Task: inverse folding
């Protein structure tokens, strides 16, 4: 993604970026939640082995990406609200 100034982007570009970020964040959150549930079920049925411990690390490793996307989404919403209030 190109780094552009906030003022250079149109409202349509912000709305498109908001929609894309919401979709990506939702899919990532769903995948991490599903993986975490599978790891808990695997650990409860088979016990704590290297596989369940290794898979259990993955959701926590990808959590920062989820938080970055969430913060970016909040910034997009804030920018869109400020543009609507200015008009």
Result:
């Amino acid at each position: 993604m190109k780094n552009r100034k906030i003022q250079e982007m149109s409202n349509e570009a912000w709305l498109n970026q908001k929609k894309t970020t919401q979709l990506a964040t939702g899919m990532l959150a769903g995948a991490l939640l599903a993986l975490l549930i599978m790891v808990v079920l695997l650990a409860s049925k088979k016990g704590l082995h290297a596989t369940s411990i290794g898979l259990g690390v993955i959701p926590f490793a990808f959590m920062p990406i989820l938080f970055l996307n969430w913060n970016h989404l909040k910034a997009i919403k804030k920018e869109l609200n400020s543009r609507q209030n200015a008009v």
The radius of gyration is 18 Å.
